[in-house]
Hints:
- This protein has helices at 8-19, 34-53, 55-98, 105-117, 121-139, 150-156, 161-178, 186-197.
- Helix 4 (105-117) packs antiparallel against helix 5 and helix 6 packs antiparallel against helix 7 (161-178).
- Helices cover 71% and strands 0% of the residues.
- By secondary structure, the chain is an all-alpha fold.
Amino acid sequence: MIPRVVAGDSLRAVLDSVFAAPAYRWIEQPDPWAQLRAWFWRATEWLLALRADHPAAFRAVVAGMCLVVAAVLAHAGYVLWRTARGIARPDDVARAEAAPERRDAEWYARAADAAAARGRHREALRLAFMGLTLRLDALGVVRWAAGKTPAEYARETGLSAADRERLGALVRALYRYIYAAAPCGPEDYARWRAAAAEPWHAAAG
Length: 205
């Protein structure tokens, strides 16, 4: 068999069409690290030249670089410690806020006097009565309960007859000042507090 001879122009046209395909398109991919690698090698060459020409300067540069690295590591450790501490702190604060403040009779008495010092005598009387009910509850002559009215405390008391009458008078004055809007000044508050501060006695066995 005699081989066919292909014309040069035809062969060139075939090769051009083949290499024009997308698979043969040469596209240079950008290398984001090329510049960094170039700087690294230039710095390496500079250090090698410095070590050969100026050993003392080379040692000084290496010592300075070690100090910089140590400072960076120390700063990173400090930031990590602050971050860990900041993460733990909200739990500590939440636990501290979750613990209710102890509000006993003395606390309410102080709060009442503070409100009276600011001229808020009706609010002071409310606080003072709350402190009084807690004090009487500690003595076992009333039973404190949320939502119980002052009149209920006066009716359910286990106080002696004289102290029962005194508590009733304090409750009536409280209603007069707070609910009937009777004038309540410093003297009225001081008189009410003085009567409430006297000793209380349980009813005889």
